[in-house]
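Service request form, structural biology core

Requester: graduate student, group of Dr. S.
Request type: structure prediction, single chain
Budget code: on file
Notes: please return the result as structure tokens.

Sequence provided:
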Amino acid sequence: MSHYFQKKVFIVTGASSGIGRSIAVKLVQHGAHTLAMARSEGSLRELKKELGELLVSCVGDVTKPEDCRRVVAKALELQGRLDGLIHNAGISMRGLAADCSKDVYRKLMEVNFFSTVDLYHAAIDSLRASRGHLVAVSSVMGRYSTQERSGYCASKHALQGYMDSIRLENLSQGVHTLVVSPGFVNTNIAHNALGPDGQPLGKRGAATEKGLDSLVVAEAILHAIKKRKRDFYPAGIKEKLGLFLSKWAPGLLDRLLLKVAVK
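Core staff response, request fulfilled:
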């Protein structure tokens, strides 16, 4: 697989931790020029120190259109091309819908959905020129919903619909579009999740602590990119059962979800 990614130019958002950081690590290991974008300058500095010259740190906020344009411009300035954009930045929430303020929903949509629109506008011409890869890291909750995740599920369903549409718009342009829908992965997403009042909850979820290893997931994502897959589900047995039931037995899935607490 290293031969495929050798000297290619990729942007990875949300690269300071979790899946995004692991994707950046794997891209560099496979020889790709990697622009890692995140808000945390300190985390990016540590990543740069670990990975060396193939890693370019780009401090920025995906909810700011000018930062989205800037990271694409930097890739073109440094390497003259862009072969792939992997949009991984995201945020979760936990709380009953009746208790959540509208500001929580706005924040989730800005980070999980509207940032995708801004990055797409910034990168699509370059990706068409290279016949490259446009990858969005979503969630199995973009395919079926669970309780106490209404805003997160809504934002990921919006992301799925958007990616499905732009995939069709770019088929004739040679751009590969991939939606990655992980199940539980051992990252800090639960720790950083917003509560009903919009403040971070600051605690790890039991399910994420038992989740898949992010480096294993990252390697599998790169394999899906190489194979130019349309959808990819790096998930455990329970989440994959949920995907199956959501299509073939949605009523049964509802009854099962009511019996379990998603933590």
